[in-house]
């Protein structure tokens, strides 16, 4: 292992897989490197809720064994991975960031982890997140907030903030999160890593603790777009255990990745870029990235998604409605925490939910229950579903003219802890540019496009047609190669010094 280039855990999975194959590094060294970094930084970041050290080391040893015997090793074997703690892992505690699931040890694994485990991926640990994936800052974790490795006073974004921070800080080489309204793309933007949400149904939701089932997507965090393509290839593909899984087999998303973008038609959502509340540095950085895409041979023109202005409002009816139904199962009987108090089952049930759920989760359950109640159903939920259809049509219309649409991922760089926690509406607005692609189920990626003068990363969002992850990845790859950005949180330089 070469000391000159720093820790192994700071490299991309692609580079590490090559080192493993050539036997210049061992999987055991990779896992050591990740745990060394965790020991150095995680007391400050709180990216992890659980470390899976013994298992991880055993798997790494098995990978080394295979490599020693010349057995073919897939692209994910031996690479340190982190999983958001809403993804069920058999025999490994899974809390959804909630007190109500604090004692829960799933008897089965989610499909993405089952596939990765079968390929000898090394699970470093389970990452901290907003409770039941509800939030944009990770301050809603029932355990502790996560901090952004770029500036410990700021949030990493949410709800998959632990996974984003872990990848940004080299505690894992890549990670999975979930994106219901932006929870992978927004924290990826705020932490300076790549966040990719594929088409709805591309990655199985089997074994994912549900928040809002029609919006929930499993999504990836990686250091670069090539790794995003590799990780997606390892977990995507039809799963009969998820009724909404796309009926398409696995494929290799790295194929054609470096094909360039000449001739692609890119639409810029001008209305979003010029919206009040978009930080000028974000606007500048995104415009500069658009200029690069044009120089690389794409045609660039203004585009619009007229009904996307209502997407946030529709989302905050649909997501709470679905969550109020999904979270009804936490009653103190079936899973997890049970209040010891209560004279009868109804009281036990009420106390369990009162004590077990945090404020934001309760707020959503109440909102959702209200909007689904008789007499209000049509006015709220029904209306929101109509808006959702209009947003879907907007995308269809835009994709008649354009191959891709681009925008900032988040209106601002990372904000300070506490800055928005007292104001749910301000917090909800940080997903204004990501939510529309959840309503439509279309693929979208966030790629780092620069640093703002505050020293914090800016994310560039590329949105594609339904099922066309390949073009989204190709443009992301072209942009990252042209930018040649090496993003390294200052925290890590302080360690090296
Ligand atoms: N921030 C949004 C919310 O709180 C999105 C969450 C998510 O994508 N899981 O609902």
Helical residue percent? 25-40%
> Element order, helices and strands?
HHEHEHEHEHEEHEHHEHHHHEHHEEHH
Helix count, DSSP H or I runs of 4 or more residues: 17
What average pLDDT do the residues reach? 96
CATH level 1 class label of the domain at 8-262 and 467-496 = Alpha Beta
How is the biggest beta sheet arranged?
11 strands, mixed
Quaternary state of the chains: single chain
Strand runs, count: 11
CATH architecture of the domain at 8-262 and 467-496: Alpha-Beta Complex
Beta-strand percentage range:
5-15%
Using only C-alpha atoms, the radius of gyration works out to: 21 Å
**The named CATH superfamily of the domain at 8-262 and 467-496:** Amidase signature (AS) domain
Q: Which small molecules are bound?
A: glutamine
Unreliable residue runs:
none
- Shape designation: globular
Q: How is the CATH topology of the domain at 8-262 and 467-496 named?
A: Amidase signature (AS) enzymes
What would a concise description of this structure say?
The protein is α/β, with parallel strands linked by helices and 497 residues long. The protein is 39% helix and 12% strand.
Could you list some keywords that capture this structure?
alpha/beta; eleven-stranded mixed β-sheet; 497 residues; Amidase signature (AS) enzymes; binds glutamine; 17 helices
Provide an overview of this structure.
By secondary structure, the chain is α/β, with parallel strands linked by helices. The protein has a domain at about 10-260 and about 465-495: Amidase signature (AS) enzymes. It is about 40% helix and about 10% strand. It contains 17 helices and eleven strands. Strands 1-3-2-4-6-5-10-11-9-7-8 form an eleven-stranded mixed sheet, sandwiched between helices. Helix 7 packs antiparallel against helix 16, helix 10 packs across helix 12 (about 360-370) and helix 10 packs across helix 13. Bound molecules: glutamine. Glutamine (GLN) binds near residues 133, 134 and 159. Glutamine binds near residues 135, 159, 179, 182 and 319.
């Amino acid at each position: 292992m070469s000391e000159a280039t720093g820790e192994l855990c700071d490299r991309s999975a692609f580079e590490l897989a090559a080192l493993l194959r050539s036997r210049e590094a061992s999987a055991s060294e990779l896992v050591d490197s990740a745990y060394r970094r965790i020991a150095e930084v995680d007391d400050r970041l709180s990216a992890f809720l659980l470390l899976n050290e013994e298992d991880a080391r055993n798997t790494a040893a098995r990978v080394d064994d295979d490599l020693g015997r010349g057995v073919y090793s897939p692209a994910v074997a031996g690479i340190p991975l982190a999983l958001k703690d809403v993804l069920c892992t058999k025999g490994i505690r899974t809390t959804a960031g909630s007190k109500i699931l604090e004692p829960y040890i799933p008897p089965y694994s989610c499909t993405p982890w089952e596939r990765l485990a079968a390929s000898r991926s090394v699970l470093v640990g389970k990452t901290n997140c907003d409770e039941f994936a509800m939030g944009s800052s990770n301050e809603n974790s029932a355990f502790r907030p996560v901090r952004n490795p770029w500036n410990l006073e700021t949030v990493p974004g949410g709800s998959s903030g632990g996974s984003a921070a872990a990848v940004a800080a080299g505690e894992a080489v890549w990670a999975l999160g979930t994106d219901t309204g932006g929870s992978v793309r927004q924290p990826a933007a705020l932490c300076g890593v790549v966040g990719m949400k594929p088409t709805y149904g591309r990655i199985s939701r089997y074994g994912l603790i549900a928040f809002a089932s029609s919006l929930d997507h499993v999504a990836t965090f990686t250091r670069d777009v090539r790794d995003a393509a590799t990780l997606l290839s390892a977990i995507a593909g039809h799963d009969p255990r998820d009724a909404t899984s796309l009926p398409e087999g696995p494929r290799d998303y790295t194929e054609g990745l470096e094909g360039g973008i000449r001739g692609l038609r890119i639409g810029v959502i001008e209305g979003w870029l010029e919206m009040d509340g978009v930080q000028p540095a974000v606007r500048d950085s995104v415009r500069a990235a658009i200029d690069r895409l044009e120089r690389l041979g794409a045609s660039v023109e203004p585009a619009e998604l007229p009904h996307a202005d209502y997407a946030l409002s529709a989302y905050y009816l649909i997501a709470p409605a679905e969550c109020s139904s999904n979270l009804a199962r936490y009653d103190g009987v079936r899973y997890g925490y049970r209040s010891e108090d209560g004279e009868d089952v109804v009281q036990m049930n009420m106390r369990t939910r009162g004590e077990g759920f945090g404020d934001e989760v309760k707020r959503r359950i109440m909102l959702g229950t209200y909007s689904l109640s008789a007499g209000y159903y049509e006015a709220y939920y029904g209306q929101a579903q109509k808006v959702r259809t209009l947003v879907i049509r907007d995308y269809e219309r835009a994709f008649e003219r354009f191959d891709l649409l681009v925008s900032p991922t988040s209106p601002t760089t990372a904000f300070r802890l506490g800055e928005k926690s007292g104001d749910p509406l301000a917090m909800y607005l940080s997903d204004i540019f990501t939510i529309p692609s959840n309503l439509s189920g279309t693929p979208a990626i966030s790629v780092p496009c620069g640093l703002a003068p505050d020293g914090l990363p800016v994310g560039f969002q590329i949105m594609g047609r339904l099922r066309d992850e390949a073009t989204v990845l190709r443009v992301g790859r072209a942009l990252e190669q042209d930018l040649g950005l090496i993003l390294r949180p200052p925290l890590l330089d302080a360690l090296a010094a």
